[in-house]
Structure formats: C-alpha cells, structure tokens
Amino acid sequence: MDHPIYHGKINREVGERLLCRNGKDGSYLIRDSESLPGVYCLCVLYSGLVYTYRVFKTPTDSWTVETAPGVHKRLFRKVKNLIAAYQKENQGLAVPLLYPVYKQKGVETEEDYLMMQPAE
Asked: Which residue range or ranges hold the SH2 domain (predicted)?
C-alpha cells in the first residue's frame, strides 16, 4: 500500500501510542494486520479508545472496510477514495476520519517508532 498514513508493519500497541499521542478524536492511521496477511487495519481514536477496522482488497480489486453490523458494504477503487468517504458522519465507524497521522520519513520498524516516543 502506498499512502502517507500507511505505517506498515507496526503492531497494535505502537499504532495506539501514535494515535493517543495525537490525542484528538478522529485521529487515524493504517497499519498491517498482525493476524491476517494481506489485510490492513484502519485504526481510529475516539473517546480515549482505539477502534480497529479491517481494510482489504476484494477479488474484484476494490477496497472495502469492515464496519458496524448492518452498514451497507461499500467498495472503492483507491484507498484515498475510501478515506474521503469515511471523513463524513454516520458511515459505520465510531467517528469520522478527521486527523491523519502521517508516517514519518526514516521510520520503518517498530523499534524506530519506539525510539522516537518518550518512555512511559
């Protein structure tokens, strides 16, 4: 995936730290799924909690997000279109995507992320 909010192979904990450090409801990023190869996680901060939604390509090469039960499944040609759609209210996410958390240049591994964060 080639997108500025795609953080690659970071784990859930590192993703949550990045979002909590930003601290605003609607902050979001995309990372690799730890449990499903080829699937991504859209992580969104809301009320101090991080909500994670699976993002994946369909057999027809479209992108989709697993949202709340009962919400109509939507297909997108590009990740940027998916993100634009979910920046609106009531789209099946806990909160609209408002504040992108961009990947920093030169940061490639979990260790890199941990080195740039203050110890707790």
From this structure: 5-101
